[in-house]
Amino acid sequence: MEQPWKIETQAVQGGYSPKPTEPRIPAICQSTTFKYEKADHVAKLFDLELADHMYSRISNPTTEAFEKKICLMENGQGALATSSGQAAISLAILNICQSGQHIVAASTLYGGTYSLFANTLPKMGIEVSFIDPEADIEEIRKAFRPETRCLYAETIGNPGLNVLDFEKFSTLAKELQVPLIIDNTFATPYLCKPLQLGANIVVHSTTKYIDGHGTSVGGVIIDGGNFDWFCGKYPEMTEPDPSYHGLKYAENFAPMAYIVKARVQYMRDLGCCPAPQNSFLNNQGLTTLTLRMERHSSNALALAKHLEQHPAVAWVKYPGLESHPSYASAKKYLPLGCSGVLTFGIKGGREAGVKFMEACRLIALVVHVGDARSGVLHPASTTHRQLTEEQQIASGVSPDLLRISVGIEHIDDLIADVDQALRAAQ
Ligand SMILES: *Cc1c(COP(=O)(O)O)cnc(C)c1O
Description:
By secondary structure, the chain is an alpha/beta fold. The chain folds into two domains: 280 residues, Aspartate Aminotransferase, domain 2 (3-Layer(aba) Sandwich), CATH 3.40.640.10; 136 residues, Aspartate Aminotransferase, domain 1 (Alpha-Beta Complex), CATH 3.90.1150. The protein contains 17 helices and twelve strands. Helix 1 packs antiparallel against helix 3. It is globular. The model has no long low-confidence stretch (mean pLDDT 96). The structure holds pyridoxal-5'-phosphate (PLP). The site of pyridoxal-5'-phosphate has 15 residues, from helix 4 and helix 5.
């Protein structure tokens, strides 16, 4: 019944349908464990013959309501919520990749993901090849090896806000028989649905737009159920799992074999589960996601246009501007808007950047994006200060770069704040 609904309706009503006298809103089920009468019932849960809740590390009713809703909104087959976006990305990779294997990833990634891939996965024996997402398909193909397990990229990359060429990436992933994993945090399923564009698995930091109110760190993985695990390369999906009496995931749980495995193996063993309270808040956030993304996008476009003609501004990057190299991709893949993050260069370089950031009044200095409240950051003097100037430039952070996460306030107030801060910075 819920599948044919439009995303606006799914966001409000999806994933939870209470019976008479049950709460209208999914309750915060703040319980670690659940009660049973018979040993046989618990045995069946352990053997995965039944899917009732047993222990909140593995599943929880409040978290399930959130998972069902985001799964519908992304057009997926199953979802697993995690304690953070980093946890979601880690589980998404570890579920199909182990020591001695390899992944190919776009180089234009969120800093935390880049660090996970460049530093931590290699310590676990997983090698990562970074590719320029704008490179030719032939060039990217060269990075693949027989032991490559997935292709990884973000819908909207960092910090250049490049929009992914889904056609190129999904063509390669299909040809090389590896799942395409997409971080859809910046776009959200309202602006882009990667599973409809050839992706197989979607991850989110729900900390950003999905929560949307700056209350909860969290993440989620969504399984598209559209990858052929029987292609011969993924024995962990098709061969018996000794930790479940020889269960075979792809055979028993299609089309959500990948997400069942992530839950019952890696969430079971690594334990990065969300608090029920945070799942409740994420579910509340989803309710208004489509409205907020409209406003974030229209405000960001208006502010980007304003900045582009401002004499104190050297350059502006926003994929909704014709001047952005991804403008054509944005038109194709983000027709409803380009989300709320923009960057610009202030005349006067690093010093003016710090002054601007400190002069903003309505727009707060935060190391965060995706909040209803606008935020500003000068990365060269804050998040990227440990890097040398050459390293900063190599990672796309010039000394004059300011990032604004445009909130859902009235655009006139945002423009007024930016204008007074630009004056103060000169
Ligand atoms: C914030 C972010 C992450 C990491 O998520 P956390 O919830 O902070 O762990 C991953 N990817 C993107 C694109 C992000 O913006």
